[in-house]
Amino acid sequence: MNKINQEYLAKWQEAYDKLNKKQREAVDVIDGPVMVIAGPGTGKTQLLAVRIGNILRKTDVFPHNILCLTYTDAGAAAMRARLSQFIGPDAYNVNFYTFHAFCNAIINENPQYFGDFKALQHVSDIEEIEILRELVDKFDDEHPLKRLKGNEYHDLDKLKKVFATMKQEQWTKKYVEEKYEEYKDLIMDPMTTPYFYKRNSGENKKGDINLRDINNELNRYTRMLGAIGELENYNKLMISKERFDYQDMILWVIDKLSNNDDLLAKYQERYQYILVDEYQDTNGSQNSLLFLLADYWDEPNLFIVGDDDQSIFRFQGANMNSIIDFKEKYEPREIVLTENYRSSQVILDNASKLIKYNKDRLANQYDNIVKDLTESRSEKSVYAPAPEVFAYLNFAQEEAGIVEKIESLHREGVPYQDIAIIYTRHNVVSNLVKYFTQKKIPVNVKKRVNVLFEPEVEKLLNILEYLRIESKKPHLGEDLLFEILHYDFWGLSANDIAAITLYCRVKNNDEPEAEQYIKWRNAMNDMTSLKAAKVSEPEKVIAVAKTIENLISEVYNVTVQTLVEKILTDTNMLHNILICDDKTWKIQLINTFFDFVKNESAKVKHLKLERLMEMIDIMNLDGIELPTYQIVNNDGGINFLTAYAAKGLEFEHVFIIRTISTLWENKPIRSNGFNFPPTMTRAAGNSEIEDERRLFYVAMTRAKNYLYISYPVMDQKEKTMIPSVFIAEIKNSEDEELKITSVDDNKTIAYTAELMKFAQGEAKLIDDEWIESILENFKISATSLNKYLKCKLTFYFENILRVPLARSVAMGYGNAVHYSLEQFFLDINRSSPRSYPSVNKLLEYFVKGMEKYRSHFTPKEFENYTKNGEIHLKAYYETYQKEWLTPLDYKVEYNIPLTEYHDVPISGKLDRVNIYNHHISVTDYKTGSYQSYKVQPPSDKNPDGGDYWRQIMFYRLLLDGDKKHNWNMREGTIDFVEMDQDKFIQKSFAITQEYLDIVGSQLVESYQQIKAHVFTPGCGEDDCKWCNFVARNMPVSSLVSDDEIDISEV
Asked: Residues near 238 by Cβ (< 8 Å), separated by ≥ 6?
């Protein structure tokens, strides 16, 4: 029965005639289950559309009897558009859905079955996190996922992924536990265990079971087992909140279809033909739904198309087992498409060479599936070279080399739109995008950004947080105020802000302890104070202060929406945005945030500032984005794409850049976080690297004729970079070792100079005279020396300006532990006969210390940290109590206010001096986690040595200059008062003259630099508070001109 209009039939026939033999087979075999394995560039999208047209031509079904399921909305839209070319408007009667949209349609069509569920609302990201937090709050102290220290909600994302995986695969707690026991039996069995001694070791003989390794392996699953038991409680909480998630939607539909024959028959009879695209990206529950719909028929008209080698979304729940399940269940007609219409044969051969390293492939499991791709283009390139691999000296040379190559191609007549740069992360190409943009070369890039991390919105959020703090208790937000005053829209100079900082750090000893420092708000509103502080433009400061005071007064008088509007207008922030070059993008950011505030306000009657900032904290802590897309779209531009976004596209010239191991196969794995036993999937043991190899394969097969792969040998700090293993896999073993590709120095300099026009920040220091007056009484401590060596900018802001710092949980907890140990060892000194107090006394002192520093904690933090400290201090007591009477005496919190080393004034306070007959040792407590690099002496990798090692050597220099005692310090110990993997760590250092000379040199050189007012550059680390502060708030200029750059300094 021909239901296609003659006008479109000719177009369909034309498309059909162009199909190759295998494609026609996939189109012509209409009835029964069909499985098509379609490699890259084999024309599967066209195939699906032509097949639907053929179904309508040859059968009596109507368009609405056809169901086509795909992975994304964009994929469904693209397929419908392709089909409309062949059947016209009837394409809109064919049912194109994603799996979730299909389930939603079933629910909406059948309120009599889904009435209970229709009352529920889809859970938002924030609501989901709050439900997970409520779940965690109910864990008892023995729960494997209970955290008493740090972020108690650290595992929320892992919990969320475990629950999603269990729902997607329809795994029950009982099923997972059975699979765990199955795996446990497997590795405990001498016949099947991979854990055995490979040589004689003590009482263990070669070939004996290694129980230690087995226990370590099983311990990896402890947290997973704790997580799966919480799924039922999570589901109950969701229902109690009248919420559901995407996985619930599919499970509801599966449940109702499975238990209502009439409902199931309705859809089985409606959909006579079912097609599924990108089948490799489906998960277990989606497969179950599909099988339910198809199982009415002995030979269902079920057509799937996919490619196991392009399964790159496993981290989102895709399950490659789906293809195997389909094959084994239906024994379908199998068609493998291998004729490639995109790439040259040499590119296909190299891609094939790469993907064959994967063990988890259909081609390895089934002899009849052969997937070697062959070039079948009607017009083959006259010259199609092998993929070229380039090794560059460093990041800058790699980028400059790519720029040089692209500019050369363009001069030869290659349009920019025929060029694509493919990478793993957007930050890899940020410099290249900046360069091409500055040079007016068109680019196409679409980047998802988190609005909350963009500078304009960060400024808005910091102001809101400051208003929240100050409206509750004045003067507690001074650490935030320092940064806020640097925002460009106030128009204040950095020197004036520094002057206020210094003025407010002067103590007034006539005031009570809490009020000894002058308050910033008071000083900023007082002309006399500003003049005393030597502020150059006091009128501007007072104007800003008045604006801030007005905003604080409005917190409880206007809605949050109105407060945001007032910040934008009253501070001059909006005006500054509207006159900048990229105002469109910045307005988009502000609007996205403002829409979020409006939407949240609509959900509750009165959204308060406190609640808004609580929500923002949750979003930041748990990685919930407020997304928008930064789209730079220029006709004829160079295409910048992540490897994921590149799937389905093709380009004449493809550059795969920064192919180093840490960005490809060894990048942070997007796993569930909690390991499921390998007995639960068919995937090979090394599945993560196979996933990344598939991604690289996808990137390679985007190229038509020219493929360039590059990597840097070193980063900008001259750290050696390891090239991706995928490069070695596509190179022939007989190939010579790659030589470094040289880039002309002048071109690298020119490239770097262009980027310098985007220089983000330059610290503006206070006048030398002021710095000199501050340094008059300056003394270096171990902490300040470490700080200066690590980041000069941090030292400047925290030790010279002494910017107010917010109280932290870590600081309060550390102080409480130090206090408890100080009092405990004082008791030992006071005892007669000499003895140590009970563990209860130690815990009593700790609780008293926690009370002393309660202001550092929220109530929940206080409760958790108190429990955590009691657990660790009790274990600490049990571990070390027998050693505490060995020293003859102790000095605790021993203070040396001033001494000198080679004319450098130094000072410090030692946690504990242990006094013996002829020598002493020093113990320094640490309550943070053990980090090995901090306790390492100097090495080739770290010639300066670790901070804690340096601290011990510094104490020896300090004690040598102390005139009160003639002590001989032989060693020092860093004592970690927190267990690391169920054991305490103490690192002791013998004092050597070599080490003392090294630290002495560091001390003298640092002091000389400090006296010379050298406080730049900063460390440049991504997580450095003060380097980021300077980059955000102290711009050099919007763009500097060429003649302002000294090329010799590049």
From this structure: 123, 131, 244, 245, 248
In this prediction, residue 315 has a pLDDT band, given cuts at 50, 70 and 90, of: low
Q: What is the pLDDT of residue 757?
A: 67
At residue 816, the pLDDT reads: 95
- The tokens for 5 are 């209009």
- What is the layout of strands, in order, in the sheet containing 302-306? 95-98, 66-70, 273-276, 302-306, 34-38, 333-337
Please say if the pLDDT value at position 861 is more than 50.
Answer: yes
H helix runs in 571-622, sequence order: 573-578, 583-603, 609-621
Scan for tokens 């300099």, then name that residue: 749
Q: Which of 84-98, 354-368, 662-676, 970-984 has the lowest mean pLDDT?
A: 662-676
Half-sphere exposure of 866 (CA within 13 A, CB side): 18
Query: Using 50, 70 and 90 to split pLDDT, how confident is the model at 1032?
Result: confident
> How many CA atoms are closer than 13 Å to the CA of 2, on its beta-carbon side?
10
Helical pair 455-472 and 583-603, crossing angle rounded to 10 deg: 40
Both structure tokens of 78: 């693209």
DSSP letters of 118-161?
A: HTSEEPPHHHHHHHHHHHHHT--TTSTT--SSS-TTTTHHHHHH
Helix or strand (DSSP H, E) at 708: strand 703-712
- At position 956, the amino acid (one-letter code) is R
Instruction: Characterize the bridge pairing of strands 904-915 and 889-901.
Output: antiparallel
Distance CA 5, CA 87 (A): 7
Number of residues written out for the chain: 1050
Helix (H) / strand (E) containing 270? helix 261-270
d(CA 856, CA 811): 8
Q: For residue 762, what pLDDT is reported? A: 59
What is the structure's pLDDT at 760? 52
